[in-house]
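re: ur question from yesterday

yeah so i grabbed the chain u mentioned. its 518 aa long if i counted rite. heres the sequnce exactly as i have it in my notes:
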Amino acid sequence: MTGHPVIIPHMLIFRFLTRAFFLTFRTPRMKGTSKRRAQGARHISLQKYPVPPNLRIRNRNGRQQRLSIRMQSPVISTTMPDTDPFPLIQEMDVCHISKICTKNSLFAEARIDMLRRHLNASKGNAMKSMQQRVVAQKDFIIQTRRDLHRIPETAYTERKTSAYVTDALTREGLQVQSEIARFGVVGLMDTKKPGPTLMIRADMDALPIEEATGLPFTSIHPGAMHACGHDAHMAMVLGAARVLSGMRDKLNGNIKFLFQPAEEGPGGAKPMIDAGVMENPGVDYALGCHVWPGIPEGVIGIKPGVFMAAMNRFDIKIIGEGGHGAMPHLCVDALEVATQVVGALQRIVSRQMNPLHPTVLTIGRFHAGTAFNIIPSVAEMSGTTRTFDTETWKNLEVRIEKVVRGICEAMGAQYELNFQFSYPPTVNDDAFSQRVRACAEKVVGGDRVVEPEPTMGGEDMSYYLQKAKGCFFALGVGREGGANLHHSKFDLNEDVLLIGTEMYCQVALDLLGRSGGA
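ran it thru and got these structure tokens back, copy pasting raw so excuse formatting
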């Protein structure tokens, strides 16, 4: 009892001086910290919170580690502004900052969860995020798209386009092979380290459409336009080539950047495969995308399994006996025979096809006659078939010829049928598609990745997917009032090209990165 009057004042004085010291030198208190800590929250706001250049952190195992961080901004923001305050920092594990020490201050404890994109605690050095690397090439990607949009060239006339792509790949230090299947180009990035080979594909040809967009970089070639987005496809792959060429030391294996002619027909993929583009080194994975007005801007669509239909083209010529319109009994009316053929062909789908196997048969061109009072001797038509079923695709020629032959024999006419097998179904590998989806979620977030319905559109990307595990995904460019593909006013928001480019790069890093692999 006698000692208490002496001890208590000293303790009070010590506590008062300690309190005064911290009030003098501590930094501003983070608003809401106590409330969040009480709720067990793992995320806190660090805005307006000064960060010293040297941190001593204690991880969950109790080990202390000192980090020296180069800062371009004195402020950490959890909103991740366009100018990233950690431009050199990639990744860190959840850790507990027990003491943030500087020469004369002690910061309050804080639990933070700034993962993966910002600190690499294991190496202690910093690395740009993939998004930053792509954004740094924004001007290049957009200018590339505009350059290529100005010089559209239809199937197997892509001379200027091929030269442009060859020059761009050569400037990135790649091993470039050109004039494959006439105008195809491949740029090989060999990391000189063992690993899988990824192929990233773009198509180069334009459509025979007169452009009506009014863009300042509109087509300079009359009657030709990039109305299917192939200019965007090339720009994204060339952008990925530039980004990934700067990351060779972080990758294993090889990347082939492939540019093919004639996707719109008659098809450039198969001739390029026949020329050996899938070999030396052998391609393990094939990746490609198509801009997609049916999906909102910036949304990525990935469909495992069958994504696009098999397609064929057919041309039919009906040959009859022409004559005067007043004397049909002396003629074999080719026009009448042809109309009977058109109706009967539609019944192949409605009465001969399994309704559980969707099939489309369309006559898109029909021509007969020269005057109102002349029974034509010739009628011509052209059409296409689409189906997801490979067996149905292979058997349609036999069914069509059977119908045409029967009608012509019954009505006394002759016929010529030219049936062209075009592209097989586009089938994405299930496992690889899931891997690509995981990459898409990193790029745009899980809520902006969708599984689109299969489409009756056809693509010769299908031939590459028969040779390697692959994924052909959709990049949304849909917006209110926007024109569809193959329209003279088709255009897109060029900012979306950065998402496609980052997708290619993210998949490449996932497959070929030091921690990735097959």
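noticed a couple things. The radius of gyration is 32 Å. also The chain has twelve helices and 20 strands.
anyway ttyl
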